Amino acid sequence: xxxxxxxxxxxxxxxxxxxxxxxxxxxxxxxxxxxxxxxxxxxxxxxxxxxxxxxxxxxxxxxxxxxxxxxxxxxxxxxxxxxxxxxxxxxxxxxxxxxxxxxxxxxxxxxxxxxxxxxxxxxxxxxxxxxxxxxxxxxxxxxxxxxxxxxxxxxxxxxxxxxxxxxxxxxxxxxxxxxxxxxxxxxxxxxxxxxxxxxxxxxxxxxxxxxxxxxxxxxxxxxxxxxxxxxxxxxxxxxxxxxxxxxxxxxxxxxxxxxxxxxxxxxxxxxxxxxxxxxxxxxxxxxxxxxxxxxxxxxxxxxxxxxxxxxxxxxxxxxxxxxxxxxxxxxxxxxxxxxxxxxxxxxxxxxxxxxxxxxxxxxxxxxxxxxxxxxxxxxxxxxxxxxxxxxxxxxxxxxxxxxxxxxxxxxxxxxxxxxxxxxxxxxxxxxxxxxxxxxxxxxxxxxxxxxxxxxxxxxxxxxxxxxxxxxxxxxxxxxxxxxxxxxxxxxxxxxxxxxxxxxxxxxxxxxxxxxxxxx
Length: 519
Fold this sequence. Notes:
2 domains; alpha+beta; 16 strands
């Protein structure tokens, strides 16, 4: 029993955030719809999705729960998306039925950016029935525009929404209506290691009867995230061929926080001068999903300073031993480093309805998102004279070149077998996430004592890498930007990079959004 207890204590959770393979679906842009509600996204193409929203048109916040079904079809650069809602609140006898069809037009901007314009088709339908009172949508003006900035490792997007909905209350002859105007901002990013979508919506609500009219306001914040953990689990039996394994666990979470200020109604349904302030929140969580990673055989690293960092990367197939020992003290080459970067950033998961479009972009050579060679080409021309097509890292380096992640060392050479310095590595990693612009313009000064040793081309990258925690100085304040990095040092850099992609970026987004809106 004592041995078993000791083994059980060996279960350790390591907070490196991970998403599963692209086959396993996670939330996509638009999965929440555009009606101020939340889902936890489509998993493995299962639909309908669980959905919740808060409705304000009845004069008080009404929580509605149920299912959302999304069907999409695509023709050239236009996607038609139909959202069908079936919601209810059994406590008050409320039932909502809504069908909305959007036309999503995609166009290419400069620098690989994508512009999205969404309009609403005229065949909209929405009826909310609360006990014996019907709220029927009679007019709906909707406009949404967003910009997606495509970076090698991540797609950032930001959009604005403007909408106006007019409902008939009860019989048309009663002359009662409620108008709801919605404005808001939506920000998000999508990447292999996880995604985030945050929205802040403001509601201006006006009720009108033949005798009077009154108004109220509401605010809704939405947060949709995919968060992941890598857990190392020690095996309980001692007589087993491997001591433990890493398990990837993916969690899907959505939160809705609302507040409203609406006049109190008297017994006859007329507004009083008293404003009722109400707030609340909703939360949706999907069942976590897990998968086991392969167990690397690295007995020669047992007890080494970099053992855990290298084992994690090998389990994730970012570093591969390929039948030869990994020597942490050896210098990593440019080819090895770029290949590992490409394995780390992997592929930004795409909405299935956009895959044809992505293929077209690949074939035209426009900031491609592809990882492998084109199927129809048996042999692709190498962009560098020192990178033959049969090189073990040809695919990764070639794709890094296509993504504008690397450009070579001049004279048509990549320097595949050359060693790589810290400043070169920082430039590649920061370029992958597109955050060079975080550095001061026009000249970034770092806090390091050897700041003057940093090359001009790497100055912004080193500044940002320091800001987000990728590089640190020694105890004297030096970083030695031109020092060649070893395999062990690169493994630490990659683990920090993945941790930032998973958790650091998400935390920074939520912190900045919270400073403006309440989440």
